[in-house]
Specification:
Two copies of one chain form a homodimer. By secondary structure, chain A is α+β, with helices and mostly antiparallel strands. Chain A has a domain at about 165-303: 2-Layer Sandwich (Heat Shock Protein 90). The first copy, chain A, has eight helices and five strands; from the N terminus they run ααααβαββααββα. In chain A, a hairpin with a 7-residue loop joins β4 (about 275-280) and β5. In chain A, α1 (about 20-130) runs antiparallel to α2 and α4 packs parallel to α5. The longest helix of chain A has about 110 residues, at about 20-130. Chain A starts with 18 loop residues before the first helix and ends with a helix. The relative contact order of chain A is 0.07.
Chain lengths: ~300, ~300
């Protein structure tokens, strides 16, 4: 029945040799096969063990991967949160400082300025009384000079803190004032090119750009060796561009990247707060350009 | 030869039945086995494929794990670097503000204070000249009052900025002054317990602790509803402890954790700069305790 059929493979020789020989062949074949079966068994068991091991390895490594991903995500979240809080702290510190400057500037200006003006009026009224006495007239004059000088000091101190012109006349006027002051102080020739109507500019952005320009000028005076600096302010309905360009020795990549450049980082954070970007370019001996580009939402700015 | 030996397993029945029957059995056995071999072959192939697949999976997932680890490490590095730079920026901003305060305080004090003192001397010299004229004497008196008032304003403005007593007499004296000012201004009863000789304290640490105390007092006035606040300052050769305790409504965990608590974050960063820790505890209705613990290296502090 079953064994009369044709079979492929290792037993096809059954029909050609004697029963005895066939038996011997079959037996030898079976033995060989048994051995080979043993090997195959071992191999199969080995394979089964390998599959199990690989599967376990896979499970373990998958778990590790999941843990790793979870840890990475947790770490990322944690670091991002801390970063956000630190960013907020930096911005908060800038604002607090700005607020303090404004408050002190007003305090100095109002409390001291008014008192000094009062003194000056009293002095001139007193002048009429002592008109006949040369020594008193001279003393009054020197007092008047002293008061004038003090009024100038009060103005300087409060302007250094917070130029009133920034709040009263806007960014362009404040930059113009600052560049004149800078030119006198640092002896570096300055020019301002402003093609911008900054009436509708957000007060915070105005302050940020003014402070960035001030910091940039400080850097020019400290590091550039420049003889000329040009400030450009331009904008359309989309962007606002502030550039501070000098003809100095240029800034090196390492200087820009260096950890110590807190001034640059501070400027970047100020720009970032208004969704802006700050870029510094400076070839060797070709001067330095600091450029701030801020998206300028006129609608938002008017709010 | 080989087939006369004893074999275990499926062919041990060879010696008991006729050759023909044996042959048939063997043949049937071989066929069955072949079928089973086919299955086993399939199974083995399947196992081999599985091992290959698992091995490939393992390789792939291992590569992914390596990439993931690399990415995680890169991200961590990047975020940590940014965090460090932002920390440095925050610290830098604090220092710059402190420096600015000191500079303005000195500017206001020196430039304006000296001028006002000059005016006062001139005024008293002038007084001798106009001794006979009642109106002039009165005018001089009102000028003198105005100058005194202005001198007070100058002192207040510069002390608000940077209490000279902090630099001249140290932290304990400055805290004492600040608590008296605070008591007058906020109407909250204050006491100071200082068991500390702060002569050798680092000037930066002194400033940091003073500013932390000021910020803590501001928080007490703003949020606590307290009627009493106690400031404690203690230290041994290892640690320095500043505590600000009030009897107000207490601070909630959410308030401490909240993103908006920039004041708290700022204080923490100030403490952190000197390797210190800042802790805020406050049960409901049990008041709030703010505690700063800073390692106090006397040797280092004296440098």
């Amino acid at each position: 029945s079953a064994w009369t059929e044709e079979f492929p493979g290792r037993v096809h020789f059954l029909g050609h040799i004697s029963d005895r020989a066939r038996l011997a062949d079959l037996y030898a074949n079976a033995v060989l096969r048994m051995w080979s079966d043993d090997e195959l068994d071992r191999y199969r068991r080995h394979l089964e063990v390998m599959v199990k091991e690989r599967t376990l390895d896979l499970q373990r490594i998958n778990e590790r991967l999941q843990r790793e991903i979870g840890e990475r995500e947790g770490k990322e979240r944690e670091l991002k949160e801390t970063m956000e809080r630190l960013r907020a702290l930096s911005a908060g510190l800038q604002h607090a400082r700005e607020e303090e400057r404004r408050r002190i500037a007003m305090d100095v200006h109002d409390r001291l300025g008014q008192a000094l003006t009062g003194l000056k009026i009293n002095l001139s009224l007193l002048g009429r009384k002592v008109a006949g006495d040369a020594e008193s007239v001279e003393r009054l004059q020197s007092m008047s000079d002293l008061i004038d000088e003090t009024i100038r000091a009060v103005r300087e101190i409060s302007s250094d803190l917070r130029p009133g012109v920034l709040d009263d006349l806007g960014l362009v006027a404040a930059l113009d004032w600052q560049l004149k002051e800078f030119q006198d102080m640092a002896g570096i020739n300055c020019s301002l090119h402003a093609r911008l109507d900054d009436d509708s500019m957000d007060a915070g952005l105005r302050t940020a750009l003014f402070r960035i320009a001030q910091e940039a000028l400080t850097n020019v005076a400290r590091h550039s060796g420049a003889t000329h600096v040009e400030v450009r302010l331009a904008g359309d309905e989309n962007y606002l561009l502030l550039e501070v360009m000098d003809n100095g020795r240029g800034i090196r990549e390492e200087e820009i990247a260096s950890r110590g450049s807190l001034g640059i980082l501070g400027m970047k954070e100020r720009a970032r707060e208004f969704g802006g970007e700050l870029e510094i370019r400076g070839g060797d001996g070709e001067g330095t350009v600091l450029a701030v580009k801020v998206p300028f939402n006129r609608a938002g700015a008017r709010e």
